Amino acid sequence: MESFSVRPAREDDLERLIEIHTCAFPAAGGYEQRKRRFTANHFGGGLADVRVIEHDGCLAGHALAYRCEHWLGGKRVPTGAVGSLGVAPEWRRRRAAHALLDALHAEFARDGAPLSLLYPFRERFYAELGYANVSPLLMMRVASEAVAAAASALASSAGDGEFSFAPLDGDRLGEVRALYDEVGPFTSGRMVRCEARWLSLFAQEDLYWLGVLSSRGALEGYLCMSHDSPAAHARQTLIVHEMTARSPAGQRALLEAIGRQRDQVDDVELTVALGDPLVFAFHDAPGSRRGTPTLEHPLGALSAGPMVRIADVRRILELRGYLVDGDLTLRCPDDPQADADVAVWWAREFAAAGAWLEAVRCVRRLPAGRRARALTALLPRPKPQVAWS
Q: Residues 82, 195: one domain?
C-alpha cells in the first residue's frame, strides 16, 4: 500500500494544483478562474482551506475543506464540507482519494463537526466511505401562465393582504441577510452563510434580487433569479435560484411576483425537494411544451442532492433540536417480521444531551443489527413551518 501524507497547501503548490484540477474538472474554466478557486473561494477561505496529498514529495491530489454550519431541527450544526477533490491521472486507483478523505474526516472530527457533506462525482465511491444520499431534488419547468394562475388561486383562498414588489439593493441587502437567518431555523439542511458567501452572491451580475414588501414596507420575502435565453427572440426561461419568505402569505406573494413575468418569460425553473406540495399547485404546468410518445407532460427533472456522512451519531443527537413537541416512532423496515418500533416522546428539551441519551437508550434495546438504522431515523426532516399550503 502506498504511503501518503496530507498537509495544507502552500503558495508554491499552485501550479501543480491547477494542473491536477484541469484534469479532474475539465469544464471548470481557465487558469485564473481555477486559481481563484484555491486562493479566494466563495466561502471566504483561501489556500488555508486547501489540503494536498503527496507521496515522497510528489503532489497526488487536492481537496478543499470548508467549515460550515447547517440548520437541522432549529439548531445550527457544525458541518465539514468537502469540495473540488481531484487526483492526478497517474495516481488514480492507488487509494490517494481514500487517504485524503480519511485525513479530512479526522480533521472535521477534531473540530467537533459530526457531519460531513459533498456533491459527489461518483456516488458509489463515496457510499463505500459512509456517505448516503439526502432527499432528491425536483427541478420543475413550469409555464409562467400556470404559475400566475396558481398564485391567484392560492391568494384568493387565503385572503392575503396587499404586497408590493421592489428591487433589492443597497441597504435592503442587509434585510435579505436578516430574513435568511430568521427563516433558517424553520428549514432543514439550509446553510448558514458567511460574509464571503453573501458578497459572492450579491456580486454576480446575472442575478436579480426582487423583494416582497408588506403594507408597512417591511421585507416579507425575496427572490433570487436570473434569465436564460439561448438566442435573441427565443423562448425565455426564468430561473429561480432562491425563494425565501417569512410566512405562507409571503410565499404566495413570491409566486405572484413570478407570475407577473409571464409577458416576457415562457417557462419558470423552480427547484424543490421531492415531496414538496408545490408540485400539485400548477394546472397545465407544461404549457405549450409537448412531450414525447412515452412522456406526454414532462414537469421537470429529478436530480440527486449532496451526500452526507454521519461521523458521530451521539454528537449529532446532542446538537440537533426539534421545533415542536410530538411523538417520534423509530421504524426498521429492513425486518418487517420483528417488532422493531420504538416510540419515544420528545420535546424542545431533547436538544439537551441528557434527554437525547435517554432516547438512545431506548434504541439500544433493539437487536444489534437494527440499531444503526434506528439511530439514523432519529434525524428526520422536520415539517417546515413556512409552507406552500
A: no
192 and 291 in a common domain: yes
User: pLDDT tens, 136-167?
Assistant: 888 999 999 999 998 888 876 656 668 899 99
Percent of the chain residues past pLDDT 70, beyond the cut: 80
The answer as to whether 44 is a domain residue is: yes
What are 352's three cell numbers? 439537551
The number of folded domains in the chain is 3
- Least Cα distance to 147 among 225, 233, 231 occurs for 225
Radius of gyration of the chain (CA): 23
Do 192 and 299 lie in one domain? The reply is yes
Residue span of the structural domain in which 103 resides: 5-133
* Integer Cα distance of 254 and 176 in angstroms: 14
Question: Last residue of some domain: 83, 102, 133?
Answer: 133
Q: Are 121 and 115 in contact (CB under 8 A)?
A: no
Residue 248 inside a domain? The answer is: yes
The reported pLDDT for the residue numbered 386 is: 32
Query: Given this model, what pLDDT does residue 145 score?
Result: 94
Domain co-membership, 299 together with 152 = yes
Taking only the tens place, the pLDDT of each residue in 30-51 is 999 999 889 987 776 789 999 9
Tell me: do 17 and 52 sit in the same domain.
yes
**Final residue belonging to a domain, choices 242, 274, 303:** 303
Complete edge-to-edge strand list for the sheet that includes strand 50-55: 5-8, 50-55, 58-72, 75-87, 115-118, 307-310, 132-133
Position 281 confidence tier, pLDDT thresholds 50, 70, 90: confident
Strand 5-8 relative to strand 50-55, pairing = antiparallel
